[in-house]
Each structure stands twice: as structure tokens, then as C-alpha cells.
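Page 47, continued from p. 46.
Same chain as before, 301 aa.
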Amino acid sequence: MDVVAVAHSLATFSEKSFPVDIDGICLDLKVAGKRPTIWVSKNLRLERKRFTIAHEVGHVVIPWHFGTILDEIDAKPKKTTSEYFEWEGEANRFAAELLMPSVWADDICRRSTHLRDAMHVIAQRAEVSLRAAALRVLRLGPPGYLVAAARNDVIEWTGRTKGTRSHGPNEGELVSTIDMPACEEPQILRYNQTSYLWWKERGSIKPPRRAPSEGWRTILSEMLQLVPEEKSEQIRRQINAIVGYAIGKEPKGSPVDVIYARAVASLQNRSSADMHLSMLLSHPKFDDYVLSRVYERSQAA
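Result:
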């Protein structure tokens, strides 16, 4: 895709040295009698420059984007400028489709043995950054994949494909402390100082032991003794909903390894602002509660 030629065909295009840290500017959008102008920073890396140009073309093409727009592509949304960031999101999606068309990128995802490889292929062929390719893969790839980007052993951002059951690590977490029991070992791609870690959920996980002798209702009642009485019933419902919903995705009588994988995925990196719920999720007997429910469903007729 010759994105520079596209920009020249739709606007007056040039590269500039900006005195401030911005990626690009669109001027005179939808102004009667004036041709739009696109300026892009000449200091950007090739991959980022291509995406920025495509982004600015999006502002020119999308009918309701008007006026003058200053762009910092990676800027995070702020509540006070919601319309601006809506436009930025729309321009980003336009740029992604222009440089990495859905049909083409989806075919690469389907042909790849792992989404880490799909990200790499898309980045190389479309001449976009690994981050842009990763975001495209997350949007189009099959369920069951998670990704995290890290610099200096610190997670900067994470994502997962639609339909993925488990949660990834948190931003700011150290790579060395990550625990992903629901997933296979990560496939890693390193570029400059950034590492892209891709995980694939396991389809089955062997439980660590047989079902406990106590039933899951008894185990849960015992754990709930640590919770104030007025919160007990609420926490009971929450715990049962989290685990019950996950294992309920598999029919009764399914292999125990498959049901257990569902449970592990639903609990991976799950956090809660509720102190009491978090306390039960980390309770020494919580694993027994999960195992009891898993075996019960597997053995049900």
C-alpha cells in the first residue's frame, strides 16, 4: 500500500519538523473551497509514519471529521475530550483497515500456527509496527489468545482476542512474576527494547489431585466463616457465579481435564476491589472448592 500516494491524492501532503511532540496535523478539514492539508512529523520511524499518514487520511475521508486536528497516535483518552478521542479511535480503525485489510489479515491469522507468528508476518508485510499488528491480530484472531508488551521487565499493555476466557497480567506487573496457569508457555518476539509475549489457553489441564472428600457446599460454607455475616450471602453468590458459569460452559459428563481448564481460565489473574471476595479467592481451601465442583460436573450423568 503506497499510503503516501493516497495522501497526495486527497490532500496537500508534506513532512515537517514540529517544535512539539506530535505525530501529525490535519488542517482545513471539510472547509468549503479549501483542499485539506496533512502534515506528518519527519522524525517518526517508517512504520509509525505509515500508520500516522493512514490515520490522517482517515480524518480527511471520514465525513464528520472537520476543522483542525492535532494527533498523538498513542495518546490515552481523557474524559474531558471524548469527541476528540472518538475521532481518534475512528481514524485509527480506518488506518488499520487501509494498511491491514480485514480479509487479508484474517487469512494470515487462520493460516498461522500461533498468533505471535501472525503478528510478525502482518508487521513485516504491511510495514507497520508490531504494536499495530498485535492490535489487528487481537481484533481478528480466534478466541484463546492473550498478549502483553513489556519493556525492562515491566508490562506496558495487555490484550486478548474476543471470546478468550482468562485474564492476562496487569499493567505495571513484572514479567518475572507472571503466573498464567491456564495457558501454554508464552511465545515471545523481541524487537528493540520491547518484548511481545503471546499466550494460548490450554484446552485441557489435569487436576493436581482427586476430588476432596468434603462437598463443595461444605467447603464454601467453611471459607465464608471468615466473611462478616452481612456480606456472606453476597460473596457466596459471587463465588458460585464465577466458577459455576465457567464450568457450565462444558456439558455435564465432560472430561474432568476439560472442565478443570475452564475453571482455571476463569480464575487466572482475576482480581476484585472487594476485600472479602479477594480473600476467599486466595483461601487455602479454595482449590478444594473448585476441584469438588469440577469433579461433580464431570461425574454427573
